[in-house]
Amino acid sequence: MSAYRTHTCNELRPAHINQRVALAGWVDTVRDHGGVIFIDLRDREGKTQVVFHPEDNPELAKMAEGLRVESVIQVGGKVVARLKTDEVDATNADLATGEVEVEADELTVLNRAAVLPFQLDRHVANEDIRLKYRFLDLRRPEMQRNMILRHRITKTMRDYLDEQGFLEIETPILSKSTPEGARDFLVPSRLSPGAFYALPQAPQQYKQLLMVAGLEKYFQVARCFRDEDLRADRQPEFTQIDIEASFITPEDIYGWVEAMLQRVFREAVGKEIATPFERVTWHDAMDQYGSDKPDRRFAMKLTDCSDIFATSDFRVFSGAIAAGGVVKAINAKNFSPSVGQVDSLTQTALEAGAKGLAYIKVRDVNDREGWKSPITKRLTDAEIDALKERLHIEDGDCIFFAAGAWEQSCTILGRVRLECAECMELLKDNHDIDLFWVTRFPLFGWDEETQRFCAIHHPFTRPVPEDVEKVLRGEISTDLCAEAYDVILNGNELGGGSIRIHERDLQDATFRALGLDEATIQEQFGHLLSAFSFGAPPHGGLALGLDRVVMLLGECSSIREVIAFPKNNRGADLMSESPAPAEPAQLRDIHIQVKLPEKLRQKLEAEQAAAQHVEPDSSPKN
Known about the structure:
Shape: globular
Low-confidence stretches: 618-622
Strand order of the largest sheet: 6-9-10-22-21-20-17-11
Helix content: 25-40%
Oligomer: single chain
Mean pLDDT: 94
Largest sheet: 8 strands, mixed
C-alpha cells in the first residue's frame, strides 16, 4: 500500500489472521492491562487494536506504554484473533476490526505529540478553542465524518451535472464591485493605484456572460464572499453549487435540481425523497407561515381574523384594518408560556417591527374569565366566540396576534411561530424531510430608507411574462412578480435562482426602475448591456448553498461544523490569527494609508486581543 503501511486501520478482518501487516496512524488510547499494553491506533478510516507483550519484547512494550495520545506511530506485526470463549469475550462489536488485533513486534515513533489543549474524545463547549486548534478538532471522528460527507455530496452533484451535459468552468475571483445586495470585500490593486478589485458575492454576471458566449450549460463549485454580519449559517466566505443554462424554463431547473437532490440524499445519507417537489407561491408561504422559507413540519398556521375585528372597540385591531392592514393570529396548541417566554416572544415581535405582542392564554375556553389577557376586556362576546371557532381554540391554548400591514404582520407572527415551536420542542427528534419550491417572489420591494425600489433577488431577475411590458413602460410597483424560485428544506433555503433578463432594453429598464442613472448603469453594467446587444439567449439558473446542504444532511447545528477552516462569529480565524494588520511596506506598495480615530483604534485593538486570546481547556488530559 505504501512504505508506511500495508492496510488502513479499518481494513483488517478475520480473513487477515496470521498475515504480517504494517499500520500507521495516531495513538487514540493507551491502556495497561496487567502489564500487557494495548494501543488503539487510528487513521481516517477507523481503528485497530495493537497489543504489546512485555514477555516477548520488554523494551518495545515500555516504549508503547510511554506514548502520549495523538502521537504518530508505525507498527508491524501479525494479525491474530481476539480472545473469545464462554468465559471471556474480548471482541468489540462497535469496531469493524473488533474481531482481530495486531501483535506488534515493531514500533517506530514518527512524531511525538505534546500535551493536548483539549481532549479529542470529549465535547468541547468552547468553540473558540476548537477553532484555534482546528487541526486537532478536525481529527475528531464527527468532524472527519462531516468532511467526508461534504466530499460525497460535492462529488455526487458534480457527477450528476456532468451526466446532464453541464461544463464546469471557473470564473474570476478578482472582479468589479457592483451592487448585488451585500457589502463587497475590496482588494486594492498595486498596479492601478487607487483602484480596487472586489471578491465576488456570486459569479452572477460571469455565468450570464458564459450563456451569451454560447456555452449553454455551466456549473461551478464557486467560492463567494460577502462582508456582512455573521450567524450560525453564514460565513464571510462560503461555497455554492452554481448552475446556469440557456434555452430553458423554470421547469427545466426544477427537474434538474430535484433529480440531483434525490441522488444526493440517496448516495450521501441513504435516504429516499419523493419528486416532484410541491410548489408554493411566495404569497401563500407568507400568508400561511409568515416566512418565505417556512418550516412546515408543524402546523400553527397564520389565520386572518380581520373580518372579526373590522368594527371592534379594540382600536389597535380595528385601526390597523381601517388603515388597509390586517389582523392575523396563530394558535399555539396546549402552550402555557412562562413570563420569561412571553417576554422573549415579545422581544422577537419587537425586533420584527411590532409595537408589542398581543396574546391570550386560554385556561377555560367556555368561561370568559378563563381567557387571560390584557386585551380580553376590550373584546366582545361575539368576537371571542368568533375567535374560538376560527382558531379551533381549546383549553390550554395560547393565541398570539399581529396587526398592521399584511407583509409585516405575517413576518412578525412567522418569527413568533418559530420561537413558539422551539419553546414547545415541536421539532425535537423530528427527522421528517420537507422539500418544496417557493415561487413567484415579488420582483421589487420598497426601501423606506432610500425611498426607492430595490430588487428582491438581484437586478438581473426576469419578471413573469405578464409583467414584462409593465417594466418596459416604467409601471413599477411591489405587485410585480419575478420568475424566481427557492428550494426549501425544513425551513431552510437550500438555494435559489431565477430566469434572467437577456434583452438589453428590459435590463436597462430594470436598472432605471431601481433608480440608477445612465452614467452609473454604464460604469457598473456597461459590459453586460454590451453583451446583450450581440445575441444573448434566454437563460436562467440557480445556486445551492453547499455549506448549508451539508449542514442539514449531516444534522449539524452550524455551517462552521462542515467547513474545514471557518471563521468564528466575529469573522476571525483564531488559528492563523487573521485578519491581522499589514506591514507598512505592504501598505506602501498598494498606496494605502491607515488612519483610524484614536477611540476606534483602541476599540479594535481590544477586540482583536479578545478574539485571539483563547484559554486552554481545563479538563483533564490523557
